[in-house]
Amino acid sequence: MSDFAQPKDQDSNIAVVDAPGTERAGAAKRQTRIIAIANQKGGVGKTTTAINLGTGLAAIGRRVLLVDLDPQGNASTGLGIDRTNRHVSSYDVLMGEATVAQAQVQTAVPGLSIVPSTVDLTGAELELIDMPRRAYRLREALAAGGEELDYVLIDSPPSLNLLTVNALVAAKSVVVPLQCEFFALEGLSMLIKTIERIRTGFNAELEILGVVLTMYDKRNNLSDQVAADVRGFLGDKVYKTIIPRNVRVSEAPSHGKPALLYDHKCAGSLAYMQLASEMLRRERLEAAA
Predict the structure, then answer these.
(1) Which fold has domain 31-288?
(2) Backbone φ, ψ for residue 188 (5° rounding)
(3) Which of 144-148, 189-193, 240-244, 285-289 has the lowest mean pLDDT?
């Protein structure tokens, strides 16, 4: 058994512990929740959130698939998938040359697998233009079945193109990482308009599941002001959990590990575990309503 799956003690890594009320014993089969991690603005912690939220959900006992739909492939690198080992990728899935099951790779995190990205995705937009149902390629690939999953997280590119459209059409909801900086609300309003266009033209079920405030610096009064403004604008859609600016979280991708494996005691890791638990609590409340 890996350290990741051991009960937590002074010698172990992360414990796999359910938050209160998340026990799975005897639970009825649930539909897979497909969530796009999206923001048209770059540098907001989107991929970091995708990696560590996925890891946090897996640590709580959920079965998670991360689809790397960003040509940069940072989510794949951050989960330790070497570029030379990405024989089948999200590009192949979009082109219809492979199934999701054929493309997914198990990561070092029990319960977390990934469909890796390669540089081939850079040209995918041009290739998709002439394809039938080009906006629905990922949605249909995920619907084709495979391993039973609790969550599919899609790490989308930091731009609005056909890859991002595929992510938003495939998803039922969007988690928006939002950096605590001056232009945060401007970028958020642009994303909301994009989501409304997708709802109108392609996916009427799409909704914002929540906004995650990232890179929070408690020494900076601007972070508090941005957090207050975003909460005033979106209210309960903003998660209570705030992700702090943290050196260990920034270091983790260079070691091919999520922060929760690299340093499970750092402030960033603890925040992402709390975010995963908060997401599950919200889900239970929605189901009970």
Answers:
(1) Rossmann fold (3.40.50)
(2) -65, -40
(3) 144-148
Tell me how far apart the alpha carbons of residues 177 and 39 are, in angstroms, rounded to a whole number. 7
What is the strand order of the sheet 173-179 is part of?
A: 105-106, 112-115, 64-68, 151-155, 33-37, 173-179, 207-216, 238-244
What pLDDT, on a 0 to 100 scale, did the predictor assign at position 42? 83
Alpha helices, DSSP H only, in the chain? 46-59, 74-78, 90-94, 100-103, 124-128, 137-143, 162-170, 184-201, 221-234, 247-251, 259-262, 267-288
Question: Whole-model pTM above 0.85?
Answer: yes
Q: What is the C-alpha separation between 18 and 60, in angstroms, rounded?
A: 5
C-alpha 43: how far from its chain's center?
15
Q: Where are the domains of the chain?
A: 31-288
What is d(CA 116, CA 64) in angstroms, rounded to the nearest whole number?
A: 14
